[in-house]
C-alpha cells in the first residue's frame, strides 16, 4: 500500500530535544580542552628543547654561569659570569658546540665546545669574547670544599693552595716575590687542578689577570687590556677575550696526566749527574758581597765542594777581586765553578756602549733609547732576549768567560717581568710580558748540564734546574723554611722536574732572623 502526498506538502521540523544540548556543550568543551592541550604541549616542547640546548654532556649552562658534574652526579666545578649574564634566547647548539651571541651588556662571541679526548676525560672549551674595546671579561671560579693545586710560586706558599684576604685581579706575570710580596712568583703557569679531578687551563692568548676572595673561596679570572702590561698583537683589535679549557676525569691522577701531556712539553735532556749527586757551596750564603779569593780558598780547604761564585761579570770584571790564576787553581784542584749571571748591563760596563750600538737592549716605547731599569745593584739596561742578536751576543760572552776562566756553568738570576720598565718596546712585540722570561730561560739551553734559572713560564722543555726564590732563615710559610716543600711540590705540579731548593738553611740575613723564635714543627 502506497501513500501519495500532495506536491505542496511540507513536513513539520522538530526542535532538538533538551537532552541533546548537554551533549553538544560537552563536545564543544572537549574540543576547547583538546586545543589547549595541543598549545600547552607545543610550549612544553619548545621549553624542553631550549633546556636541552643549555645542557651539554655533564655541564649545565645558565645565564649567570655553569656547573659541571662527574659521572656520579656530584658537582666538581662551578663558575659564575661576573661581567655579564648570557641572553639564553640567543643561544643555539650545533653538534658539540653551544654558542650565544648576546649578553646583558651587548653582543658577544660565546661558545662552549665539548671534547672527549679519552674515555675517562671530558673537556669543555669555553670562550667569551667582547666585541668592543674597553670592558673587562671576568669569571669567578668557586673552589668550595675541594683542595686546589698549581698556579704559581708565591711569597706565602701552602700545599694545597691556601689564600688569605682579598685581592683585586692583577696581571698574572712573573715577578720577584722576595721583593714584591703580593705578586705572583717567577715560576708560574695558567693551570690549576682540584682534588675532585677537575682541572682548568687558561689559554695563552688571554690578557690574564688573577684575583681572589679567601672568605668566599673564589678565584677571579679576568681578561683586560686597559691599565695592563698585556698588549694586543699588531693588527689585532683590543677586544678582551677570556678563554679556557675545563677538564674532568675519574680521578686526579688521570686528569693531571692528561693535562700535563696536553699542555706541557718535556725536557729533551737531563742535567749532569754531578748536579744531583754532590752538594754545592755558595759564596753568597756565608759572605754575601764581601768575598775575595783568599776567603774563598780558606773555606774550600775545609769543605771541598763544587763552588757557586757570586760576582759581577758585566760591571768591570777585569778589575774584580778574582783573577785568571785563581780559576786555574780551582780547576786544577778538581773544583767545578759556576758563575752568577744576570740580564742587566750596568752603565759603567764597557758592554753598555756596545749594547747601545748593536741595539741589544729593551727600549723605551719610542724605540730609540734603551729603557733604564733599577735592580739590586743600581741602574742599568736590560737585554732584549726577543732579539736573536742579543741572545747570541750574550751566549758568546758566556762562552768566552767559560773558556778564559774554566767556568763549568752559570747561575742565571732574575728574569722576572717585575724588572722590566712599565712602558717598553722589544724587538719582537710581546702580547704577554712573561714571554720575555721564557726567552731568557731559552738562552740558557746551551749551558743546561749544570745551569740554574729562577724563572719559568712555559719552560718545561728547558733541561736546566729551576731554582725557587730565596728562603729566609725563619720557620714559617712566608718565604720561610716551612714553605720549602709546598713550593717544590707546586712547581713540580706545573711540569718542572728539575728543581733546586737553593741554600740549605735559608738566605741568612741578621735582620730576618732576629725576634721571636718559632720552633719547627715535629715531623
TrEMBL record:
InterPro entries for the chain: Alpha-glycosidase_related, GH, Glyco_hydro_31_TIM
Domain of life: Eukaryota
SUPFAM superfamilies assigned: (Trans)glycosidases (SSF51445)
Keyword annotations of the record: Glycosidase, Hydrolase, Membrane, Transmembrane, Transmembrane helix
Family as reported in the entry's similarity comment: Belongs to the glycosyl hydrolase 31 family.
PANTHER family documented for this protein: GLYCOSIDASE FAMILY 31, MYOGENESIS-REGULATING GLYCOSIDASE
Protein's name in the database: MYORG glycosidase
Species for this entry: Oreotrochilus melanogaster
Amino acid at each position: 500500500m502506497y501513500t501519495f502526498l500532495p506536491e505542496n506538502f511540507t513536513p513539520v521540523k522538530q526542535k532538538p530535544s533538551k537532552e541533546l544540548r548537554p551533549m553538544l556543550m560537552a563536545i564543544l568543551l572537549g574540543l576547547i580542552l583538546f586545543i589547549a592541550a595541543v598549545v600547552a604541549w607545543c610550549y612544553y616542547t619548545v621549553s624542553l628543547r631550549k633546556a636541552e640546548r643549555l645542557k651539554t654532556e655533564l655541564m649545565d649552562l645558565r645565564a649567570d654561569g655553569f656547573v659541571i658534574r662527574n659521572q656520579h652526579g656530584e658537582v666538581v666545578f662551578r663558575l659564575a659570569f661576573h661581567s655579564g649574564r648570557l641572553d639564553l634566547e640567543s643561544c643555539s647548539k650545533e653538534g658539540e658546540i653551544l654558542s650565544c651571541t648576546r649578553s646583558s651588556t651587548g653582543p658577544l662571541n660565546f661558545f662552549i665546545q665539548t671534547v672527549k679526548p679519552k674515555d675517562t676525560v671530558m673537556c669543555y672549551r669555553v670562550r667569551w669574547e667582547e666585541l668592543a674595546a674597553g670592558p673587562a671579561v671576568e669569571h669567578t671560579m668557586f673552589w668550595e670544599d675541594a683542595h686546589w693545586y698549581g698556579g704559581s710560586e708565591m711569597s706565602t706558599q701552602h700545599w694545597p693552595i691556601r689564600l688569605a684576604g682579598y685581592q683585586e685581579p692583577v696581571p698574572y706575570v712573573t715577578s720577584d716575590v722576595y721583593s714584591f710580596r703580593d705578586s705572583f712568583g717567577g715560576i708560574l703557569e695558567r693551570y690549576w687542578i682540584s682534588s675532585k679531578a677537575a682541572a682548568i687551563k687558561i689559554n695563552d692568548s688571554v690578557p690574564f689577570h688573577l684575583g681572589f676572595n679567601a672568605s668566599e673561596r673564589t678565584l677571579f679570572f679576568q681578561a683586560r687590556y686597559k691599565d695592563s702590561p698585556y698588549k694586543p698583537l699588531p693588527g689585532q683589535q683590543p677586544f678582551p677575550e677570556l678563554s679556557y679549557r675545563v677538564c674532568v676525569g675519574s680521578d686526579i691522577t688521570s686528569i693531571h696526566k692528561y693535562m700535563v701531556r696536553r699542555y706541557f712539553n718535556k725536557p729533551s735532556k737531563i742535567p749532569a749527574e754531578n748536579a744531583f749527586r754532590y752538594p754545592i757551596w755558595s759564596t753568597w750564603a756565608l759572605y754575601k758581597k764581601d768575598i775575595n779569593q783568599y776567603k774563598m780558598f780558606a773555606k774550600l780547604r775545609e769543605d771541598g765542594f763544587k763552588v757557586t761564585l757570586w760576582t759581577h761579570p758585566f760591571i768591570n770584571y777585569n778589575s774584580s777581586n778574582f783573577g785568571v790564576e785563581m780559576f786555574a787553581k780551582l780547576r786544577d784542584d778538581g773544583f767545578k765553578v759556576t758563575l752568577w749571571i744576570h740580564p742587566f748591563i750596568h752603565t759603567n760596563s764597557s758592554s753598555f756602549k756596545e749594547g747601545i750600538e748593536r741595539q741589544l737592549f729593551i727600549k723605551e716605547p719610542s724605540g730609540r733609547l734603551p729603557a733604564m731599569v733599577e735592580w739590586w745593584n743600581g741602574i742599568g739596561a736590560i737585554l732584549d732576549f726577543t732579539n736573536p742578536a742579543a741572545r747570541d751576543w750574550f751566549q758568546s760572552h758566556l762562552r768566552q768567560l767559560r773558556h778564559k776562566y774554566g767556568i763549568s756553568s752559570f747561575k742565571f738570576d732574575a728574569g722576572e717581568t717585575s724588572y722590566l720598565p712599565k712602558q717598553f718596546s722589544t724587538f719582537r712585540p710581546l702580547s704577554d710580558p712573561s714571554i720575555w722570561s721564557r726567552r731568557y730561560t731559552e738562552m740558557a739551553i746551551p749551558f743546561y748540564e749544570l745551569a740554574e734559572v729562577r724563572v719559568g713560564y712555559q719552560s718545561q722543555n728547558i733541561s736546566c734546574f729551576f731554582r725557587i726564590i730565596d728562603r729566609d732563615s725563619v720557620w714559617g710559610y712566608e718565604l720561610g723554611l716551612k714553605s720549602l716543600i709546598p713550593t717544590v711540590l707546586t712547581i713540580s705540579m706545573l711540569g718542572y722536574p728539575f728543581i733546586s731548593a737553593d741554600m740549605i738553611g735559608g738566605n741568612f740575613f741578621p735582620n730576618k732572623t732576629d725576634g721571636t723564635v718559632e720552633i719547627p714543627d715535629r715531623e
